[in-house]
From TrEMBL:
Limits of the Thioredoxin domain: 1-118
UniProt protein name: Thioredoxin domain-containing protein
Ranges in a coiled coil: none
Family matches, as SUPFAM superfamilies: Thioredoxin-like
InterPro entries: Thioredoxin-like_sf (IPR036249), Thioredoxin_domain (IPR013766), Thioredoxin_H-type-like (IPR050620)
Presence of the UniProt keyword Transport in the record: yes
Keyword Amino-acid biosynthesis listed: no
């Protein structure tokens, strides 16, 4: 049917509380899964523009946990992770930050995640 795209289930988990953040990081750590976090906000156009790319990356890396944190909704997590600008992408392993990218740079985030997953 023309005009109807096939819908796919998102692999990006929206974090809606500090408790959920702690739970998801602990779960990923227990399973040995790396984590990629997109710190975003609804009013930041570059953050919103990166969302489809982040969804695509999540589809391409099934063994990585992809999280989305709206800094206006979960300020405690943004503060804990020292997020000061959006979008910010944080790469984590076993609950610890391994790398961080600030800004909407599609080529750089693809490269960073590719290197992170293969390390």
């Amino acid at each position: 049917m023309e005009g109807h795209e096939q819908l796919r289930k998102s692999r990006v988990i929206k974090v809606n509380s500090e408790q959920r953040w702690d739970f998801l990081l602990a779960q990923a750590g227990n399973q040995g899964c790396p984590v990629v976090v997109h710190f975003t906000t609804a009013w930041c156009i570059p953050s919103v523009a990166m969302k489809p790319l982040f969804e695509d990356l999540a589809q391409g890396y099934p063994n990585v946990v992809f999280l989305s944190v709206d800094v206006d909704e979960v300020k405690e997590v943004a503060s804990k992770m020292e997020v000061k600008a959006m979008p910010t992408f944080v790469l984590m392993r076993e609950g610890a930050q391994v790398d961080k990218l600030v800004g909407a740079n599609p080529a750089q985030i693809k490269k960073l995640i590719g290197e992170f997953v293969s390390s």
